[in-house]
Amino acid sequence: MLSTVPFRAVLAVVAAAASVLALDACSKRIEPPGDKGVCYNVTFKPNGELVYHKLVNTPNLETCAANLEAMRIKFLRMGGSADEILGAYQANFIFVQKTGIFSGTTLDGPRYPALVRTGDGRLAIPGAMPQPPQQ
């Protein structure tokens, strides 16, 4: 039995899907610099462009995240209101938030926990805190 959908309608849907995929492939993903060992604080210009400010040289992402957290706390103690800070380290964005520190390879992509808050507010590597036995 032949389909009741006209061939032109199917062709139009396929063409629209192909054009959406082509436009998505052309869109530029925002990725951080990959300089080895350099920790950046990232800010935004009014036009939305990113500005990378070199903060320190660090051996790993966790140390960079700790420096960004220290900067966030100092700004809050001076009367600032920024609860979140954006950073970058070796081709990874670092998202410093009240709930913890997350990392991702793109600005708008998935984020993964790098450090989590303990009960008293300190930062720890996920899984490093002892868990009560499950019953």
Give the overall shape, derived from the CA principal axes. globular
Largest sheet: 7 strands, antiparallel
| Largest sheet: spatial strand order | 2-1-3-4-5-6-7
User: Which percent bin holds the helix content?
Assistant: 25-40%
Task: Find the structural class using helix and strand composition.
Answer: alpha+beta
Percent strand equals: 25-35%
What value does the Rg take, in angstroms?
A: 22 Å
Search tags:
135 residues; seven-stranded antiparallel sheet
Question: Can you tell me about this structure?
Answer:
- The protein has a seven-stranded antiparallel beta sheet, with helices on one face.
- With 135 residues, the chain is an alpha+beta fold.
- Helix content is 27%, strand content 29%.
- The protein is globular, with a radius of gyration of 22 Å.
- It contains two helices and seven strands, in the order αββαβββββ.
- The protein has helices spanning 7-26, 61-77, and strands at 38-44, 50-57, 85-89, 92-97, 100-104, 112-117, 123-124.
- A hairpin with a 2-residue loop joins β4 (92-97) and β5 (100-104).
